[in-house]
Amino acid sequence: MQVDIHASWKPYLEKEFDKPYFFDLVNFVKKEYHEHTCYPPGKKIFNAFNHCHFNDLKVVIIGQDPYHGPNQANGLCFSVADGIPHPPSLINIFKEIEQDLHINYPKSGNLERWADQGVLLLNATLTVRAHQAGSHQNKGWETFTDSVIKTINDHKSNVVFLLWGGYAKRKSKLIDASKHHILQSGHPSPLSANRGYWFGNKHFSKTNSLLEQAGLKSVAW
């Protein structure tokens, strides 16, 4: 099955595209996009992979679901298109970066600039129906994205996995901590952050320190 994904990923994921669950998933997504407004735009469903090529990948951030409001989702977890107001979780991410690295709060919430440096911004579910959070969960996306995590685990080393919140932390079972780095904290959503589970985690400086120790270039957050 042809999937609009960067060529660097194809040797590792092509076998997934030919599995029965993926055929069912594609048919479900096509029907949803035909009958309802869905996000992100069809051509951006695999945007995270098209900006973060497999060979360049060094950091993985795991989200749950795309944003379900108009013009927000651009195929990368926590990211929004240029010119779109920053959602609460993204605001808290940028505030933590500000405190951790003394970097000015950015104007754009478009995180393609991170992805282009080797940060895979992976939602567990890659599509959603407008204004219905979680509407495309348990349709096959999680099987695919779990396979992506396992592929990275098996074929890469010294990857830094940032697991924020309970849902992302459950993915730690797919990761070999003896060959990769796992940093965990509360979710950047206001509910978690305002209770003290997010701010001060210093994940961005810690990530860069781990990358530099492995002889890799740090991320310009």
Automatic annotation (TrEMBL):
Pfam families for the chain: UDG
PROSITE patterns: U_DNA_GLYCOSYLASE
Chief subcellular location: cytoplasm
Domain Uracil-DNA glycosylase-like as annotated: residue spans: 50-211
Localisation: Cytoplasm
GO molecular function, one term: uracil DNA N-glycosylase activity
Active site: 65 (proton acceptor)
Membership in a protein family: Belongs to the uracil-DNA glycosylase (UDG) superfamily. UNG family.
Protein name stated in the entry: Uracil-DNA glycosylase
Native organism: Hanstruepera neustonica
Gene (name only): ung
